[in-house]
Each structure stands twice: as structure tokens, then as C-alpha cells.
């Protein structure tokens, strides 16, 4: 009976891009009352995109973007990639390579382009080099409060402006958080990003509790804390970077690509990740447990009545008695009833696979 239902679960879960590594995990999913979600790649796309370009003094927006792309050319840093992507779209890719380059760890870079000295980085880098950034102070404050990552630029000692970028929040993230809350599940966000970025994301998706500037071992500690409070806790994150936290949680939900599953840390894999798939996985487990209960009820009631009739319990009162051939037929009919009831699972799953509208 259970095997029949679980075979439907595995198949329909796979149809919804949900791969269940361990069948028994569905019992744990059914009991989840707390979920820890890593920000990068889970609630957000994990890829920075330019949102604002601001120019100051006698520089225009094209100048700022072009100089920004000049000094970031060839870099693999997420912000550099965002600036270069924006420059490609706006036709502002650099025409001349850098002549000199110097990096300042944690602050930014200094480069020479077409005879001009370009500074690109944090406020401190420009201030340490005598650049007056007061004309952009209000913009800097506003963009930081919005949780955006900034790259300030100066050309030959004059403040040119800034480029701001942010990690795009996934389309269904807010609806997912709201649905999890409505199911009585506490939602906690963790991120290695700074406090302002964390605040901006949690404000957007309506998460009340979050931890910023955390290391992988910190995520494990937060999960242990929730478990110490008696919470059945799930962790949603990347199966490589968040492996310790996924292993510590009662249920690890891995948002990786689904490749090399056997070596990854989650017990549920979301191969084409959409935050709404978290809700689908939980509702899928609830539907599974409900179906198992229904079939258990059918088996128990059916067998009690059938055995009582075959034993002649109702013979003297009602004249009920079953011949052997009829008994065999009824046994077969019970298996058919269980199969039909399990098959209805497909109808439930079709409701679950409908994504939250944008």
C-alpha cells in the first residue's frame, strides 16, 4: 500500500522538478515548522544587475559607465560582471585597455586609462586619495539603505559618480514566504551579505527574522538553536556551499542543478529552482501522508468487516456468509480500491504544480 503511493509521489515529484533522495524524508517534511533559507540563489537570482548610474560634477552617465567598465574589464567579481553587462547593453564598452593597474584589498582599484587616473571602489579609497565625494553623499546614503552594492568612481582626482547594483529577488519569493507563514512555518533568512542588503531583501519578501554577515558554520549554529527549541527545521540552500547546514537540518532542500545527486547533502533536490517549489514539496508531503492515512483506513475497515463475515459473525443475525470464490474476489477488489485511491494523487499534484502568479 505504502509502496504504491510513494511510487506516485516519486514520479509526480520528478514531474515538478522535485527529486526525493530518501522516501522516508516525507514524514519529516510533513512535520516541518521552521525553515531557514539562504538568500543568495534561494530568494534571489544570485546575480547582480546594475540598477542606478549617477554622475557628478561635469561627467555624464555614459562617462561613468564607460570608466567603470574600463577598470573592471576582465574581472570575475559579481559587481564587475554586472557593470560590464550593463556597458554591453548601453554600448559603453571600453575602446582602450588599461595602461596600469593597482588593487587595494577590500577597497577597490586604481588604473590608468588613456592617460587618466581612475579610482573605482569604496568611499574610503576615494577619500584616502583626497577625492571630495560630498556631492554624492545623499545618493550614497540612500542607495546603501536600499541594500545596494556601490562602486564609486573618480577621474584624475575628481569625483565622477557611482554605479549601484543589486541581486534581483526571485519572482515568486514573496508569495512563497507568505504561503509558508500561512502554513504555520517560521521563516528565517541567512546571508553572508551585510546588514543593509539583508534588511532590503527581508523587507521586500516580508521575512521578520534574519541573520546577516554569517559564515557557513554560523548557519549550522542557527539551525541547532531552532532544533534546541523543539523545531523540526528545514534548510534551503546550495548543496555545495551550504552542505554543513543542509546536513544538520532535519530536512535539507538542495537548490543545486541536480547533477551528481548522490554526493550532495540534501534529501530533497529542486532541479529547476523556483522558490514556490519549496511550497510544492511541503504540500506534496502532506498530500502523501493524507493518502497513506486514507488507504490505511480502507484496509483496516475493509479487512475487519471481511474477516467478520467470513468467520460467520453476521450469519445468525443477517444470514451473511461468504464463499471462498467471493472472498478471493473481495481481496482483489480491495487492492483495486487502494490503487484507485492512490491514483487520485495525480489530481492533487496537478493543483500543486501550478506556480504562484507573477
Q: What is the gist of this entry?
A:
This protein folds into three domains: 8-45 and 170-282, HAD superfamily/HAD-like (Rossmann fold, 3-Layer(aba) Sandwich); 47-168, Calcium-transporting ATPase, cytoplasmic domain N (3-Layer(aba) Sandwich); 283-352. 48% of the residues lie in helices and 21% in strands.
Tell me what you see in this structure:
- The chain folds into three domains: 8-45 and 170-282, HAD superfamily/HAD-like (Rossmann fold, 3-Layer(aba) Sandwich), CATH 3.40.50.1000; 47-168, Calcium-transporting ATPase, cytoplasmic domain N, CATH 3.40.1110; 283-352.
- It is 48% helix and 21% strand.
- It is an alpha/beta fold.
- Strand 4 and strand 5 form a beta hairpin.
Structural class: alpha/beta
Low-confidence stretches: 347-358
State the fourth-level CATH superfamily of the largest domain.
HAD superfamily/HAD-like
Strand order of the largest sheet: 1-13-12-11-2-9-10
Give descriptors for this structure.
358 residues; alpha/beta; Rossmann fold; Calcium-transporting ATPase, cytoplasmic domain N; 3 domains; 7-stranded mixed beta sheet; 6-stranded antiparallel beta sheet; 48% helix; 21% strand; disordered C terminus
Write the layout of secondary structure elements.
Blueprint: H1 2-15, E1 18-20, H2 25-31, E2 34-38, H3 39-43, E3 44-55, H4 61-72, H5 78-90, E4 100-104, E5 108-113, E6 116-121, H6 123-128, H7 137-145, E7 149-155, E8 158-169, H8 173-182, E9 186-190, H9 195-205, E10 209-211, H10 216-228, E11 233-237, H11 243-248, E12 251-254, E13 268-270, H12 276-310, H13 315-318, H14 324-343, H15 345-352
Parallel strand pairs: 2-9, 2-11, 9-10, 11-12, 12-13
Antiparallel strand pairs: 1-13, 3-8, 4-5, 5-6, 6-7, 7-8
Helix pairs in contact: 1-12, 2-12, 4-5, 12-14, 12-15
